Amino acid sequence: MRIGELAARAGTTPRALRYYETRGLLPARRDAQGHRTYGEDDLRLLRQIHALQAFGFGLEETRPFVECLRAGHPTGDTCPASLDVYRSKLAELDACIAELNAVRETVRERLLLASASAAPEPRCELVPPQTDREETEPCSTPRPMSPR
Amino acid sequence: MRIGELAARAGTTPRALRYYETRGLLPARRDAQGHRTYGEDDLRLLRQIHALQAFGFGLEETRPFVECLRAGHPTGDTCPASLDVYRSKLAELDACIAELNAVRETVRERLLLASASAAPEPRCELVPPQTDREETEPCSTPRPMSPR
DNA sequence: CTAACCGTTGACGTCGGCGTCAACGCCAGC
DNA sequence: GCTGGCGTTGACGCCGACGTCAACGGTTAG
């Protein structure tokens, strides 16, 4: 299997696979023409990578999982190094969530205070809220649920 | 007041102020030597900018607040445009927090499942947890609480 | 023969908010 | 005159995960 086919089957692009290779994450054999050649196993590795990326894992963080799979384990998270990544990710998420909640509360307070003082006389105006709902792009840091 | 002094008083750098100017966020007058000149008002604008940045607001999002202040209002969030930013930020935060919570739960489940199957015999090993606490850098997207 | 299509490497662009460096100007003090 | 300190503009670097383009090569189908 060559790069185009693997990319299509994995739902990604040749460019991404080449990038992974430069990072040492997904090395490829070469055929007589110098073209990259992959096996079925590589498809599993790619699926692992994408599953973790969808959760906001960085490429480096997927490495233990990928190597774990390549070592022959049934799943990528069978190895201790992968569990460590899980744990540090959990801690990171907890810290992030706590911080965002704190910010959220502060912003909410400010909004209430400001909208109160901005309307000197609370006229109970019930303006129909929003006619159109814009898709506001959410959290991008661990950025899960990327388009495509 | 020139750029170095204002930067020092605002706790930022000349580079940042020049950048703001290129963005049209903080225009400056010039003296005979071509040096940027600022007034006391600009210090207030800068404080507003930094306060919002500490909450994870992007520079563009601070613009309504800054213009509100320049329009002579007592606070930056007196104007409707600023309130809109507050509201959209709240929505963004809510979406982000919800997403992160979902990811957190999934990761936690995975960790439990994997650590359970990784230890075929739950040997109740009570290894002393962590000897050193590494400062894991938290959420960077709305990235509040930046260093300095 | 030529076009279509797949592959290769290399380099630059993207996004935000500046940091850092280069090369220069102007003014004060010794 | 020389040094130090402040200012100016312009350009490149950073970080992550690629997208996009350029210029090239090899295989296959018409």
Describe the structure.
The structure is a homodimer of 148-residue chains. The first copy, chain A, has 148 residues and is mainly α. Helices cover 56% and strands 3% of the residues of chain A. Chain A contains 5 helices and 2 strands; from the N terminus they run H-H-E-E-H-H-H. Chain A has a two-stranded antiparallel ribbon with strand order 1-2. In chain A, a hairpin with a 5-residue loop joins strand 1 (29-30) and strand 2. At the A-B interface, helix 5 of A face helix 5 of B. Chain A binds a DNA duplex (30 and 30 nucleotides) through helix 2.
Short description:
With 148 residues, chain A is an all-alpha fold. Chain A has helices spanning 3-10, 14-22, 40-54, 59-70, 80-118; strands spanning 29-30, 36-37.
